[in-house]
Amino acid sequence: MRYAPLTACAAALLLSQPSPISAQQPSSAPVRFDAAGAWTAFDRLLRENYGYRDRPGIDGDAILTAFAERARAAKTDKDFIDVLQLVARNFADPHFVVGPLDADDWSVVPTASDLFGVVDGARFMIEDVRADGDAAAKGLRPDMAVVRIDGQSPRRAIEEVTGRAFTDLSAPQIAFAFNVALAGHRGRRRMVEVTDGGRRRRFELAATNDLADRIAGGPLLKVARRGSLGIIRINNSLGDQALIDQFGRALDTLSDTSALLIDLRDTPSGGNTSVARGIMGHFVDHELPYQKHVVPYEARVLGPTRTFMEYVAPFGRRYSGKVYVAGGHWTGSMGEGLMIGFDAIGATTMGTDMAHLLGALSNETIQASAARIDIGTEQLFTVAGLPRERFQPQVYVPRVERTPAGDPILAALRR
Length: 415
Hints:
By secondary structure, this protein is of the alpha+beta class. It has 12 helices and 19 strands. β17 and β18 (372-381) form a beta hairpin. α1 (35-49) packs antiparallel against α2. The longest helix is centred in the first third of the chain and has 15 residues, at 35-49. Residues 1-21 have low confidence and may be disordered.
C-alpha cells in the first residue's frame, strides 16, 4: 500500500504482513546519497503520513525545524541517518525507529530494555524492573534513584539521546529519552549508579540486546496452572504465525480450567493482526469489533477522512471460562492491540500503563538515502474511540513485573 508518491517502495503494513521489512535491518540495494533530497523526502513523509506528528508535549514542526540544517549538511549517508535517529527519538514514540542500526546505536526500547524509569521533579527514578533481565538479576529494584548512566548524569545522558539541550525538551521527551539512556547502546555493557536508602551503589549490566536475543531464541509461549487457573504467557512472539497453532493447542490443555490468564507482560515489539485475531477468536461466538483505525494521510493529502473498524471472528475451539489479560511497561504494539481487543470483547484486563508504541506500523524508505524508517501511519483507538496510548487496564496494578517475592498479577487475582 503506497501512502505518498515520495516513498521509494510501498509500505509494508505490520498490521497485515506477517514479516515486514524492519528499520533495524540493513538495506540490500545501494543508493546515491543526496542529503538535501533525502531530507525533503523524510520531511514530507512525516508531514503527510506520520499519525502522531503533533500531540501533547510533541511539536512536530519544531522538531523538524531543529534538525533540518544539520541533516542537509550531512556529508555521508551514515551521518544523515544518525541525524534522523535523533529526530525519531525527539518524537518520543518507541514505534518510530530509523535504521539500519549498528552496535553503537542506542537500543530499541522497549524490546531491548530491562528498566523502566520515571522523572519525578529533579529525581530520576526506577519505576519497574523487567523480570528475567540482567538488571533484576543484579539487584536493581523500583524506587532506586539513578544518579549516573555510563558515568554521565541522567540529564547529560538525555541530551546525548536527543541531541538537544535538556531545557529545550518537554516532559514526554525527557521521560522517553531517560528510558533509552537506561537501555544503553545495542552492543555495549552498561554502568548504572543509583542511591538506595541513602547508600550509593553501582551496577554493571549486560547489553540489553542480549536479553532480546535470548527471548527471540526461546519458546513462543509457556503454559502453567495454579489450581483452577490456567496461564498462557506469550514470549514476544506476536509476529510469528506459528503462535496461532501453539496458542490453540495450549488452550486445549487448559480446557478444564475455570479461569484463564493470558500474560502479555513480555510482548514489547512487533506482531500482526492475523496472530492477534487467531488468539482472540477463541473467546468470541460471533463477530465483534476490537479496534478502530484512522489513516491521517487520506485527510491531509486526499481530503476525505478514512476510518474503519477491525473485527474478530470465532476461530478454533472456544474457551468458556473467565478470561483475564495482563499487560505492563513491556506490552507494546500488537500486545497493546490485544489488550484493547480483549477489553472490547469482555475479558478483564489487568496491569499498568503499557509501552505506548503509537499506531499501526509501516516500514518506509525514502529517496536518496539508505535510511529505513518505521512509523505509525494509522492512528489506533479502542472501539469506544479512546486513543490506544491512553488506555488503562480495568484492574490497575502499578507494578506488574514478577520478582522473587511473587507475582503482582497473581496476587491481584487472589484478592
